[in-house]
Amino acid sequence: MALMTEKELEIRLKLKRDFPHYAYKCLKIRAKSGDIVNFSLNKAQLYLHEKLEEQKRKTGRVRAIILKGRQQGLSTYVGGRFYHIVSHRTGYRAFILTHMQSATDNLFEMVKRYHTYCPIVVRAIEGANSSKEFNFISPESGYKVGTAGSKGIGRSSTIQIFHGSEVALWENGAQHLDGIMQSIPRTEGTEIILESTAQGKGNIFYDLWKEAIDGTNEFMPVFIPWFWSDEYREALPENFLMTEEETEYQRLYNLDKEQINWRRITTNSSNLKDLGFKQEYPSNPEEAFIVTGGNCIISSISVERARKCPANALGVKFIGVDPAGGDPENMGTHRDRTSIIIRQGRAAYGLQSYQNKDTMQTVGILVNLIKKEDPDFVCVDVGGLGVGIIDRLRELGYGKIIKPINFGGVALNEDRYANKRAEIWSLMSDWLKEPPVSIPDSDSLHSDLCAPFYDADSLGRVTLERKERMKARGVRSPDEGDALALTFAFPALKKNVNIGNIYNPNIRI
User: Fold this and answer.
1) Which of 20, 407, 457, 490 lies 20 to 30 Å from 90 when distance is taken between CA atoms?
2) In 10 A of CB 45, how many CB atoms?
3) How far is CA 326 from CA 70, 173, 323, 353, in A?
């Protein structure tokens, strides 16, 4: 066998180390037109590739969960990435698990297409194959595919790289994921990539995504908005005019008019009115998880605008503190958090959330924050651990600024709001609707703010959905939203002023 020249070796090394280059030179895909074309990574695929490579450089392995819109080519990217790995490394086994047999067949056919069109000089040598396995003799590696359905799939195999497709639609999702996680060693070079469109809340994908956002599992969250797909544009008709809502949407996401026109046409299609479009083609993660069945008290667009808007921190300074519930059975789980945030006038900042902090640990965090920020008021929810926190802060001499807030208590405007929590969330909603207003650029805060539904009681007063009801539909306690809402517990008066039972709807806080 002739030795490779220096130039040939350089070419081979680039193909091995540079996947976007390898994809274009060696892999073929079926375009939407039906033509077989070179695999040139699009914007969404390149972004995902860079994120995965960055994580691999930092940790030695890949653990990623991807929230996407429809038909953005991310399964195609993962399939190509894994074909590249198994055809270049000895002993690597890839496993693909999808939600339905037709999807499994499609991804398996895609792998076979990669292999068929791969140039022979860099193509792995094919071994014995079946309808569920695709093996190589050299290097000794290969693929296996499966469809989520029966419990425990993947438990008996040792896998190095795993692609979970449309995870939100898996039957027995938790059992499958448990089996897969046990099958993949926590060693360098292993990869777990989970991707899905959102299917509401209360499924394994939603739970994993929220934990990834909070940093309580090992997965890196990656969101891909619809407008990164170049084909989602439509030529403009004559005299094209945008609505006020479309103009705001264009400004928020820096879109061109052709993208706005595509959105208009797609939104007006028979099955994608309003919420359907947001679920299938989300602009931000919270839109993807929108569910029907109630009215959110705060709109996602208000939150998105506030995440991107600068505002000066002027005036009375509040710290809102929503302590985790005191239920021992809740400790150590991904449920309630202790959340803290600062708001001064039109700007909220300094968001921090913790799990499994006891009373004294939370007090220590607050004492340091009080010394640093010198707030006018610290508003603490008296539920859960709140009473102990309040008592200890008073013992330490902070009684003048500590304000206990009872969510179930009487509202300042009791004719309009059923209780204190409904009132302060409504005031926060009004605050977010009046730019300029700035909040932390946080997906977890965004999610919490858009989580609760509102309604009216028999007296016509605003009511806010109870946390127990939210949890019943698979939505976690909106602790970060509650923390910010607490900063609206009373009008913005300076410290040492007796707030009494003051209510003035004209005070802008």
Assistant:
1) 20
2) 23
3) 41, 30, 9, 16
Output the six-digit token pair for 251.
Answer: 């400004």
User: Do strands 347-354 and 338-345 pair parallel, antiparallel, or not at all (unpaired)?
Assistant: antiparallel
CA 275 to chain CA centroid, nearest Å? 18
Instruction: Supply the mean pLDDT for the chain.
Output: 88
Residue 345: closest CA among 312, 320, 378: 312
Q: How far apart are CA 39 and CA 49, in angstroms?
A: 14
* pLDDT at position 151: 60
**Residues ≥6 apart with Cβ < 8 Å to 458:** none
Residues 6+ apart with CB under 8 A from 275: 290, 292
d(CA 52, CA 57): 9
The pLDDT of residue 505: 38
CA angle centred on 243, ends 250 and 309, rounded to 5°: 40
pLDDT at residue 300 in the model: 87
Residue given tokens 């946390």 in the structure block: 467
Cβ atoms of 379 and 409 closer than 8 Å: no
What is the per-residue pLDDT across 302-349, written as a single tens digit (0 to 9) for each? 999 999 999 999 999 999 999 986 554 443 334 578 999 999 999 999
Task: Tell me if residue 495 falls in helix, strand or coil.
Answer: coil
Residue 246 has pLDDT above 90, yes or no: yes
Q: Which domains does the chain have, with CATH numbers?
A: 12-224 (3.40.50.300), 233-292 (no CATH), 303-486 (3.30.420.240)
Residue 154 has a pLDDT of 55
Q: Assess contact for 413 and 502: CB atoms under 8 A.
A: no
Q: Tokens at residue 122, please?
A: 């860099």
d(CA 250, CA 259): 9
Helix (H, G, I), strand (E, B) or coil at 314: strand
Tell me the per-residue pLDDT of 444-493, one tens digit each, with 9 for 90 and over: 999 899 989 999 999 999 999 998 988 887 788 899 999 999 999 988 65
- Angle, vertex CA 316, rays to CA 311 and CA 317, nearest 5: 80
Contact residues for 357 (Cβ-Cβ < 8 A; gap 6+)? 324, 338, 365
The rounded distance, in Å, linking the Cα atoms of 317 and 323 is 19
The answer to whether the beta carbons of residues 189 and 160 sit under 8 Å apart is yes
